[in-house]
Structure formats: structure tokens, C-alpha cells
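Lab notebook, bench 4. Still working through the backlog of constructs that have no structural model yet. Next entry is a single chain of 149 residues. Request: give me the C-alpha cells for it.
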Amino acid sequence: MNLTNYVRQVSLEDFDKEFRHTASWNKRLHSTGGRFFPKDGHLDFNPRIYEQFGLETFRKIVRHELCHYHLYFEKKGYRHKDRDFKQLLKAVDGLRYAPTLSSQSTAKTLVYQCLHCRAQYHRKRRINTERYCCGRCQGKLIFVRQLQS
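Model written out:
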């Protein structure tokens, strides 16, 4: 799918206005469905939203970003808190919030323990046990287990 052409089509069908900039996929987006850049007018979209939720949900996210886009160039309130934005989003049936991606909810906790004083450390990121030691007694740390939340 050519993303820019799809966004142009949605803009014409749902807003009766032309989209004159570019749209691109951005794999680095994690918690958002898309982003609007007022400086140059381009839009970025999260490809995982399209892959996990399908075209119908993705179209609603495109509408959301196009609300920002069109209101900005009309010099109206384009931010989430503005009345103009909320009214236009409701009129075109766009999503207010991006749905939660399944990979987001699988947070892991790593448990390390000191060999000397038995103090436990719960971390989200891995610790280099060769370089770091216990903060209480400077004993050697070992990896104990990984907890899934």
C-alpha cells in the first residue's frame, strides 16, 4: 500500500480537503498511532497498528492525524485540548486514543541477588554482573530469575 496516496484518499473522502505533504511509516513509534509534524507538514504512522488492528482502525488513526493537519493549516486549534480538534475528530469518527499494542503489555522484571548479603534487585534492564556489584556490601551479583507481569 502506498501510504501517501492512501492518506490523500482518506483526506478527500472524509474531509473534502487535499493532503499536500507526505506520509511515511515509522517503526520507532511505540505508544502512538501516528504523529503530525507542523514544521514541514508530514505525517508518520505506526505500522504495528495497521498489522495488529487492520485497515478500519488504521483509517480512524489517519483521520485523527488529518484533523491535526487540516486544523493547523486553517490556523485553528489543532492540539488535543482544543475544542476545534475535538469537534472535528467527532465529526469524522476518528479515534481519540490509539489502541494498546499487545507487545506493550508484556513487561518483564529481572531479579538479581547478592551472593554475600542476599539483597535482591528488581530491574527492567539487564545488569552487567561482571562490572557492577551490590550497593550494600560490594558483593558479587548473580541473575536469579525473570518475572512476567
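Notes after review: Residues 107-145 form one domain. The chain has two domains: 1-90, 107-145. Flag for follow-up if needed.
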